[in-house]
Write a structure and sequence with these properties.
This protein has seven helices and no strands. The protein is an all-alpha fold. The chain starts with 8 loop residues before the first helix and ends with a helix. Helix content is about 60%, strand content about 0%. Among the domains are: about 55 residues, Arc Repressor Mutant, subunit A, CATH 1.10.10; about 55 residues. This is Transposase-like protein.
């Protein structure tokens, strides 16, 4: 379900039962003896999704740039709280709106734009251009010089007795 949650499946179920009875996240966390932060996050999801908060979602929801920008502007202007926006638009949690607002403050509108997936393409190597006759001769000369130096080294090692 939620792999990063510190609550077990039984604790989440008990917490949701207590939420339905009207208990707040602090009372639920003290009754179950678990982290108040984890219970608070579960409580926020419960307020949005009800019992469906116990079920994991098969895929990650992707939101458009315009949608995120509109919600962030409404949140930052004070028109609505993160919880109100999450409830109205059925987001996973109000933390999503707060996270988008943080990115917007730090990076501006471009931070909310979709990012390309995967590793960036390597810079393509330049097209092999036709070498001039002079360049061909220079490269051949360099190769022959390296070969000559190698053969001299081998000959010197053969003629030199081992120590």
């Amino acid at each position: 379900m939620y792999p990063h949650s510190s609550l077990t499946a039984e604790q989440r179920l008990a917490a949701v039962d207590l939420f339905e009875e009207g208990f707040g996240h602090v009372a639920v966390s003290s009754r179950l003896g678990v982290s108040a932060g984890a219970v608070e996050k579960l409580g926020e999801r419960f307020r949005i999704w009800g019992r469906a908060a116990l079920e994991g979602k098969p895929t990650k929801q992707v939101y458009s740039f315009e949608f995120k920008l509109e919600l962030v502007r409404r949140y930052l202007s004070g028109e609505a709280t993160a919880m109100d926006l999450a409830l109205k638009h059925q987001l996973n949690s109000p933390a999503q709106v707060r996270n988008w607002a943080k990115i917007y403050r730090e990076q501006g509108e471009d931070g909310l734009r979709p990012k390309p997936k995967g590793r960036p393409r390597a810079a393509s190597s330049p097209e092999p251009t036709e070498l001039t006759e002079l360049e061909k001769l220079r490269r051949e000369n360099q190769r022959l010089q390296a070969e000559n130096a190698y053969l001299k080294k081998v000959r010197a090692l053969r003629n030199h007795p081992p120590r």
